[in-house]
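Q: Okay, next protein. This is IS5 family transposase from Acidihalobacter yilgarnensis. I've checked the sequence twice, so it should be correct. Can you predict the 3D structure?
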Amino acid sequence: MYKASDPRKGGRPPFDAVLMFKVLVLQQFYNLSDDQTEFQIRDRYSFCRFLGLSPEGRVPDAKTIWVFRERLKQLALTDQLFGQVLSQIDAAGFTARKGQIVDAALVPVPCQRNRRDKNARIKAGDPPQEWSEAKRRQKDVQARWTQKHGQSHYGYKNHLSVDNQHKVIRHYAVTSAEVHDSQVFERLLDERNSSGDVWADSAYRDQTREQALARAGYRSHIHRKGSRKRALNEREQAANRKRSKVRARVEHIFAQQANRLIRTIGIARAEVKIGMMNLVYNMRRLAWLTG
């Protein structure tokens, strides 16, 4: 985790990597900023007991927390940590069973106040050259606008694949908000699930995908969708309601992640924050399953 340093140059040794990971878990669990995390570690004895620290002693400050999260980003360790938690869940006997559910949720970030011409250049992958280096650091040029139910949203998307029996997140992907849910569907499929059943909402419905799922041995329970020329008949609506009873389980996860706003800049940092969001959910789910 840490860069090799020369002990002859002096300086304090870094905090233990496991301790810093536990700090990020607390931060995500209580949705705290770096400064609030530092304050709460000193203020709450429950935090200190969890971390093995004392309020009067040396605790990680806000800058230390930020630097550790940056190291996770630079070394791309979030997926490995997520996989380690999944391994523990499987080892406890909660393997993926009874099919999988695929869905996505928007993850908002603070809006960027740019003029329309600059937004058009950012969307085209050409950020304004007249921006100073300091201003560029404060501008998220990778988040995107999208519309859902007639409302505009700015940020990223958290795409999930959840096993039906234990409601554990098995795979996830992070994209900017304008990417359609269906574009990452195949990346999320869990081949280790004991059942070939797949549930998803009508946004994923596509005739080519239905054929591909059948060839791969999956049984599709993706919602049917109507059109202006042809509305769903009563039989199709009844089938959708039956599918919704299973597909609704993924909405329980999004309800637990209700406060999804992240205050980071760039998709690499968003991947760390969203990955920790999914990882902490799985930790809570394991505690509930074994409780």
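A: Here is a summary of the prediction. The mean pLDDT is 91. Residues 267-290 form the longest helix (24 residues).
Q: Noted. On to the next one.
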